[in-house]
């Protein structure tokens, strides 16, 4: 099958899964934005997805995302940076990213703010909150008890707009109860920052659970683009 047909079929399936999950949750499909996570896949796939009507694209590594975004600069895309972000990569990431999903520490807020001001632009930031049990290895995101303080910091930072929160389901544990906790965190942030309505949660394997718990943005890689090969380096 030609790649375009394959992507079109996958896109149809994913949109159907989103619509079904919305129906089951009593929500409108229009409330959920699909972000195509194109990491490890070539710019040509991004171009095909754009042709199929995809607007939102997600990447998690700057080395890969920067050249890909540059080669797709003629397309009407919104780039989401969803991976762990080192402060020394902020300058490069803000060259293309419209939304940063992975704000997890004060130093990163400062670096993003400085660069956004330098570029005279507003950058939408989501605070990533950890859903893993405390002390688990490789967890990313701020501890839930520190979420509000970090959200306040983003909201107060020049050049940054607090869009909402983001999370990844815990490894090796059921997604649904974790996403229920996430819904509570989202509500808490919204009670202080009424405009911070984004809840970025749900990947290929758990989009239904995420939508049931109020996700506004789902980040879909495998179900759209196929299996990824391990990346070296
Ligand atoms: C890779 C990735 C995704 C997409 O995961 P799939 O399971 O392939 O859909 C979503 N979010 C983040 C942060 C990712 O790194």
From TrEMBL:
It comes from Actinocorallia libanotica. Residues 14-228 form the Alanine racemase N-terminal domain. Belongs to the pyridoxal phosphate-binding protein YggS/PROSC family. CDD domains: PLPDE_III_YBL036c_like (cd00635). InterPro entries: Ala_racemase_N, PLP-binding_barrel, PyrdxlP_homeostasis. The modification N6-(pyridoxal phosphate)lysine is found at residue 39. This is Pyridoxal phosphate homeostasis protein. The keyword Amino-acid biosynthesis does not apply. Keywords: Pyridoxal phosphate. Signal peptide: none annotated. Pfam families: Ala_racemase_N. Pyridoxal 5'-phosphate (PLP)-binding protein, which is involved in PLP homeostasis. It comes from the Bacteria.
